[in-house]
Design brief:
Number of strands: 7
Shape: elongated
Mean pLDDT: 85
Number of domains: 2
Radius of gyration: 21 Å
Distance between the termini: 42 Å
CATH architecture of the largest domain: 2-Layer Sandwich
Order of helices and strands: EHEHEHEEEHHHE
Structural class: alpha+beta
Length: 187
């Protein structure tokens, strides 16, 4: 069973001409592209100007073969699939050196979706600190949804509590998708 869903994949990094030909074959075989180079000549025309983007539709918005090719060949990528029916929109990215891609839920417009179960414990922690100062931190021990190692660090180093919490918020609540390098075809 198949369901065509909107998606895009954006790729950056260096590849050989042979790899470029293989990439185009994989992308055009997996994605019904509305936009993006579908031949080596067209890829050469946009190579070096930034990451290259292919957008269109694919089976459930997936691009498994394309992202596997990127990871095998150390090419950075961002993959976004739109929401449809019961499926949520999602974006993932991978950069050389990462063990696995990072992903998060998004709207179709690219806005990050933060689940209440993730944000609520952090908001409650910040509210308790705003009311009771760092003396309120021990009350958070054992609170569901909070990283207990974080709480212990905050208790041991209360002057750095907000700095620690900010790191968690930036990592968990505000996932940033990195800028990709340009796609370059090496001669």
């Amino acid at each position: 069973m198949s369901e065509e869903m909107g998606m895009y994949v954006e790729i950056g990094g260096e590849l050989t001409e042979k790899q470029a030909v293989e990439l185009i074959e994989i992308v055009t075989g997996e994605i019904s592209t509305d936009d993006g180079p579908d031949s080596l000549d067209k890829l050469r025309m946009v190579a070096g100007t930034g990451p290259v983007r292919w957008s269109g539709t694919s089976n459930y918005g997936m691009a498994d073969d394309t992202v596997a090719f990127c990871e095998r060949n150390n090419l950075s990528y961002i993959h976004h699939s739109d929401s449809k029916y019961e499926y949520n929109a999602e974006s993932s990215y991978w950069l050389p050196g990462m063990k696995q891609a990072k992903s998060h839920l998004e709207t179709n417009d690219g806005e990050t979706v933060v689940q209440v179960s993730v944000i609520k414990p952090l908001v409650e922690l910040l509210l308790s600190i705003s009311k009771g100062g760092v003396n309120a931190l021990p009350l958070s021990i054992g609170r569901k949804g909070l990283d207990q190692k974080l709480i212990e660090k905050c208790i041991k180093h209360p002057k750095k509590a907000l700095e620690y919490i900010e790191k968690i918020v930036r990592k968990e609540v505000i996932p940033g998708i990195p800028s990709l390098p340009p796609l370059i075809i090496k001669e």
